[in-house]
Write a structure and sequence with these properties.
3-stranded antiparallel sheet; globular; about 10% strand; mainly alpha
Length: about 170
């Protein structure tokens, strides 16, 4: 697992440099850094013969599953209406490897109940911009994985938004 930690840390440093994070701001791994771990795991995980040729697909699924399980364990039962209400008017939040922490937080804006959500994630209010952005991105991804938000990903950028209205 140490190599995987190094991979996510390296991805955070790379993203921080590409996004032009503020000098002196310590890079913090975010959800957008995680897909880069998948190729590094290929040689570390043994697959069944029936999964041959689908290794990256299986690993990507495992990563999504781990993220959603962690989201449920940490934020299951939490009041997330403040976050979800950000999307009721069709607004979106764009994040990704070229979006600095400060910009992600600016795009997110005020979110009622965010302090309580961050407490449930083990944060006490003294977090860096990077840590706060990582928490916000984790919440957005968790809500997407639980089918509460939509997400479109292209070229390292993810746009989270309201789910389309289903007509029956």
């Amino acid at each position: 697992m140490a190599a995987d930690t190094h991979s996510s840390a390296a991805a955070a440093v790379r993203r921080s440099a590409l996004a032009g994070e503020a000098p002196g701001e310590t890079p913090v791994a975010r959800v957008c850094d995680l897909p880069g771990i998948v190729p590094t795991l290929r040689g570390k995980v043994e697959f069944e013969v029936s999964e041959e040729g689908r290794e990256e697909e299986v690993l990507a699924h495992m990563l999504r599953r781990a993220t959603s399980d962690t989201f449920r364990a940490r934020l299951g039962g939490a009041d997330l209406t403040g976050v979800l209400n950000k999307f009721t008017e069709g607004d979106t939040i764009t994040t990704g490897e070229l979006v600095p922490a400060r910009e992600l937080l600016r795009r997110t804006g005020e979110v009622p109940g965010l302090a309580k959500i961050m407490q449930r994630l083990g944060m006490d209010g003294g977090e860096s911009l990077g840590e706060a952005a990582a928490a916000v991105e984790f919440v957005l991804e968790g809500l997407y994985l639980l089918r509460r938000l939509s997400k479109v990903t292209e070229n390292g950028t993810s746009v989270y938004g309201q789910l389309p209205v289903r007509r029956v």
